[in-house]
Amino acid sequence: MTAPHPTAPATTAPATTAPDLTLPDATTTAPGRTAGSPLAAAPAPGRATTLPALVARQAELTPDALAVVDGDTTLTYGRLIQAGHALAARLREHEVVRGDRVALLTTRSYRTVVAQLGLWLAGAVCVPLDPAQPRPRTEAMIADAEVTLTLGDAKLLDAATLPGPVLTLPEEPLTSGRPVDESDPDSPAFIMFTSGSTGRPKGVLVPHGAIAELVTAPDYVTLNSRDRVLFHSPMTFDASTFEVWVALAAGAAVVVCTEQRPSLEDLARHVERHGVTVAFFTTALFHQLAARRSRVFAQLRSVVVGGEAMAAAQAREVLTAFPWLELVNGYGPTETTTFATAHRVTVRDCEGPVPIGRPIAGATAHVLDAAGRPVAEGGRGELWIGGSRLAHGYTGLPELTAERFVEHPAAGGRLYRTGDIVSLRPDGILQFHGRNDDQVKVRGFRIEPAEVEHALREQPDVDDAAVTVDGAGTAEARLVAFVVAAPGPVPTGAALRERLTGALPAHLVPDTVTVLERLPLTPAGKVDRRALTGRVRTAESGPADEPAAMTPLEQAVAEVWSQALGTEVTRADSEFLLLGGHSLLALVVTEDLREELGVEIALADFFAAPTVAAQAALVERALLDAHRDLHPETPEHSDAH
């Protein structure tokens, strides 16, 4: 279709001035480590291979073993590799050649796994797209990744009407086609997009070998061929690479969560139904599950958590209630291939901040000061990651690649600047202390506030904007925005927020937008973000008139909301999102409604009924439907009970 894309050379500009990594005089501090020396993981066995090769090996050893479970659909390893080769042959017929960037637009299903495998066997790079994100952002990603073809589900492709050629995935796995394998360990497997400070997402080129090294015979989590691993993360989230490929590398089974937006109860039922033993949860989701002592933990043997700092209290709750559970705290930006360090959490670890552990699977860790020199043991410094698991860089952004990925022979090659502040304990364990820049984490997503601010400033009635986090570092963290209106009609915060939903993915849309006369400044003339967070609770406070009395059912819903939101809800017209609600709190509310009122409400229905009154009506209908189910023979207008 096009000439093959180069990999690292296309994204790497001349390196910036390298930091001074000269090590101080060595004194022994721990077995095998000297003061100031980098932490290094032992080389993992998968670096010199590709992801298709891992599946092919399992297909040769155990062709009839279960590889993928998707509801009532199952694929063995033999069938999976056959379907992958057949799809690769079809892609070749459509002129896909090695190095082409091919976008993948699917809902999470077994076809996602087959599609990724087929793309790689054809030698292509997979660019995952989220069907739920706004079209302008999707089109920007397609352009920045230089996509030559979009492969996906027929309905999604028809609805999206994306630019460029498209190819529909077959409804059933293909069974015939000449075997082909054009994958290469050093070639990119994925282009994963993350939030970008310039107002556009940036695409990270993640190579096959780096993922293969992460998932092959991992020593940071217990895994064997009898395990079943839950696949419930969005395909655009790098954790999905762990969920799918750590299972397939081990000869285990991938269990696809068939609910696209699963509730807490959905997750528990799915894990129980399919005998899932290993799962990844974002830190925010883990905290919600832990707070409820969810029965999901009763089925699982190993849980990997990542995305934000793990709360010691929630970790202790889970380990005390489920003492057999292997709980792993994973850390790593997309640029270091999902996880760069990991730590098996014990109850003793919960006496203080939970550590992020040691480097894993070929990664190295360097704790450096502002001048780029190693920090003394116990001191705080920026974490730089090296080793064989680094991404190639950012597609189409050579200057940014050179800024974040620094070549330095003294460190054994390239290092990636994480921007995270850590310290090193005497036992060689890393402790996390936060960020050294404006980047934030909210509900597991990495967010550059500048990207959201850029989108707000693009609005014609906005002069300036500032975005910050309310409740940073807690499970209740939420993104909040403040704007200064341009001359003319003053927009409402709700209207601005509504416009952003058409320009940004859901996790980048602020939970509240407040219009101010001016942004507060520090004495140095910078936006005073601390002062802004103190004004959050006044955002979108709603009408000041006396609230009308609520019905008993509305009052019951309001009480559930109040408990989840941490603030008293007194009006039937109160809106969940404007009170600081978000998708994870919606999971909590739907679970509480199920426990308190005995009704099941899907998340899609929940967000379609945004007020207390609307949700009370939803609950009433659900209760009436349940009542009819108990008396199927009773006429609708009968007085019988």
From TrEMBL:
It comes from the Bacteria. The keyword Plastid does not apply. Residues 548-623 form the Carrier domain. Pfam families: AMP-binding, AMP-binding_C, PP-binding. Keywords: Phosphopantetheine, Phosphoprotein. Residues 1-45 are annotated as: Disordered. InterPro entries: AA_adenyl_dom (IPR010071), ACP-like_sf (IPR036736), AMP-bd_C (IPR025110), AMP-bd_C_sf (IPR045851), AMP-binding_CS (IPR020845), AMP-dep_synth/lig_dom (IPR000873), PKS_PP-bd (IPR020806), PP-bd_ACP (IPR009081). PANTHER family: FATTY ACID SYNTHASE, NONRIBOSOMAL PEPTIDE SYNTHETASE. This is Non-ribosomal peptide synthetase.
